[in-house]
Each structure stands twice: as structure tokens, then as C-alpha cells.
Amino acid sequence: MADGRYDMNTKHNPFKIIISLSIFLALMIGVNGCMFFENKPTRIEENDEYVQMMHQYIQDKYNVNFDIKESILPEEGFNTGMKENILVVTDENGVSANVKAYLSTPYEYSDDYVYSLAADKIQKSLDLTDIEKHGCCKVYTVTNSSDPTDIDISADNIASLTFVAVIDHSSDDDALDILYDVYSQIQTLGYADVYFLVAFSSDLEYFSKVVLNYTVYGQTSWSDYPAEISAYMNVMDNDLSKDAFTKELHAL
What we know:
Blueprint: H1 14-27, E1 31-34, H2 48-62, E2 67-72, E3 84-90, E4 96-102, E5 108-111, H3 113-125, E6 135-143, E7 158-168, H4 174-187, E8 194-201, H5 204-212, H6 214-217, E9 231-235, H7 242-246, E10 249-251
Parallel strand pairs: 7-8
Antiparallel strand pairs: 1-5, 2-3, 3-4, 4-5, 6-7, 8-9, 9-10
């Protein structure tokens, strides 16, 4: 494994990675929808009726039944108004979505359901059998279209694709071969902006939660997580050879 250091003169320096991931996480906010009321609650936990309103918003928007999976509360502190109440829901096919509202404007909702539908369609087109034996993974997208009735996964509609995985740190050398196979499958789809993010860790339980809702729990740097990571990959270039891909593995 490489020692994790970066040459500041290369395009793989950490500042590029941090900026790119920050842009991705910002874009994943989703498609906006708005409702306005007075007497606004500050936090999601203060009013169960507010949770139900967030739930009703996404059901009415898409005419789909969603189950509430989790409500996530923002931490108090500096710039609280820019923090978000988040309601995690799943549709009848198990596709998850996040409904969000800033504390400063708690009735202006946004969601990422269309992005999730596109990501789910892409993920089902990939052969992930081998990688799932070593950990877990998930595809995320940002789409140009917000039409939920026609999920287009062509290169013209997918603005970016992010593949996130956590691999058991004790996995043998075959793990890199398996990862490169998935990377190559994604490359055949022809998307211009692809982010291939992998962490090697012994704490699969913790990082599985991160991977399965990266838009909420994802950080801009692997070193920001409280759980231990032994190595990572942040691949941001297309059409890499196997040797070049392997060199993207860094010790942490």
C-alpha cells in the first residue's frame, strides 16, 4: 500500500478531492418543493406533526407510499439555521430517499428521490456479487432531469455518479481485482464525472451505515470519521489501467 502522501503538484492532491466531494454532497440536496406556514418549529423532534408533514410532502409529490425509516436531528451550535432536519424514507421497492429542510426555513422541503431512482437502476445493472462478499457498496447519482416517470440513466442525463464502498480490511489481494472490475463496469456506462470511493476498515457495521446513506453521513475526508480506516481509494479519473487504479490505494 502507498503511504497516503500526496504530491501538491498533482491533480490528485487532497484539496481537489475535498472540493469535489463537497460539491457532490451539496448537489445531492435534491429537487426542491415548498410549503409555507407560520409558527415554525425549530427542530424535527419538537413536533411529530411536522414529521408527518415532511412525510406527506414526499408522498403527495410522487404519489408513492413511503415508509418512515429514520429522522435525523441536526446538532445545536454555530450557524444552526443552516443545519437540516432530515427524514429518511423508503418506497415499496426499498429505494430510499432523504427529505430535508433547513432549520431556518423548516417548511421549504427538498428531496433526492429521483436521484435515488436513477442510482438504483444503475446499481441493478452492475454485477456486484463479488464485492458484496467483502463488504457493502452503493451507487449515488445527480441527474439533469427531475422527471420521476421516466428514469433516464443515459450519459446525457447523469450529471455525476458516485460509487461508495467499504471493504473488510482483512480482505485478500483479490479485493483490488474485484474493485477494478466494478470500476471497469461503471466506465462502460460513459459518464463524464465518476467518483469511486472506497474505505478499508474492520468496522463494517459503522461504515455500512455511512455507505448506505452517504448523502447524509458522508464526510469530505476519510480521516474525519471516528471509526478506524486502514486504507482508502478516491478515484476520480476515467479509463485508468489496472496498474494506475491500484496506485490510487493509500494507507491512512
